[in-house]
């Protein structure tokens, strides 16, 4: 692995940072979060038209830029740094990869170009608080089911030569505003039950969407209710969606890790700026040894997390990577940096008017939605066969006996 960024990657970071610094400051973030769409549509259009951001990791044949996961992760590091509310994560890191992996050629040709152009946004609707399970982040998703019937969730049935969906999915990222929904639904009854993905355009008859109050206002979520909604099957009935969901989950984890480390780096910068300005006993509080030590610990954690995130992004396009482990470390670094920011800003750090709480809520909300660090690590250990017998099992010595 070459840890150096290419000139093109540096240009992506620099250009995106300039745009976000000029158009997505603290006031802009709050205004975007309060917008009915949950983001600023004008900023999204500018990022799409000027930078081609939505199509960054999509193939050129479908109107994308043709870059790798690394470039998408670098872009998300910058949006995370600004805490910019945008459809980037839901559309480009969740929905678009699934359409690319599972869709028919006709579906790809119809849907991916508008997604790459930013004129269409999309969201993955998974029933219940099970997104991390469906994506294989906190455990194997081989036993995942989209629910249906008395178990809740979303049920799919055949009708009039097509498919109809009935059920509900909560905590859907951008679910209230996306132009296209990818809905995970249970089908096949009980004898041959399985989960398939279905395409549901916004405005479909029987579809009701409501924005939910979320812990992190910069990460908008919606509740999706389906009452006999006509839907189009993504791919074919023979499609096995679970491996594709797991692969998407690993890539998503790498992208989320970069986003988290961007936010952690920025909140650390703002805390350093504050302690160098704030004086106590006639000197900046940043000159006190105790404050220096605390910020040094945060700096080391953020730098280590950044290295881990970059490695995960590099590895994501080369088979099963280290996305889950990277996400665990980066979420911990963000929570650590945000907590120290709240403490070292003193009284103002606890107020609604200051931005420190936004970074802390981002860390807490991501842990709730995508899995706490200890479960992400447990899944990584399970995948590598650590502490279990069999192929790939790790070995350790206990009292001279190898286990």
Helical stretch count? 12
Sheet with most strands: 7 strands, mixed
Query: What level of helicity do the residues show?
Result: 40-55%
| Extended strand count | 11
Let me know the average pLDDT: 90
Q: Give the class from helix and strand content and strand pairing.
A: alpha+beta
Low-pLDDT parts are 390-403
Q: Which term fits the overall shape? A: globular
Topology:
Blueprint lengths: L6 H17 L2 H9 L6 H11 L17 H14 L5 H15 L2 H13 L4 E4 L5 H4 L19 E6 L2 E12 L6 E8 L6 E8 L5 E6 L8 E13 L7 H37 L1 E2 L2 E2 L4 H28 L6 H22 L11 H15 L2 H12 L12 E2 L2 E2 L1
Parallel strand pairs: 1-4
Antiparallel strand pairs: 2-3, 3-7, 4-5, 5-7, 6-7, 8-9, 10-11
Helix pairs in contact: 1-4, 4-8, 4-9, 5-6, 5-8, 8-9, 8-10, 8-11, 9-10, 10-11, 10-12
Write structural notes for this entry.
- The protein is an alpha+beta fold and 403 residues long.
- The chain is 49% helix and 16% strand.
- The strands form three sheets. Strands 1, 2, 3, 4, 5, 6 and 7 form a seven-stranded mixed sheet that branches. The chain has a two-stranded antiparallel ribbon with strand order 8-9.
- α9 packs antiparallel against α10.
- The longest helix is centred in the middle third of the chain and has 37 residues.
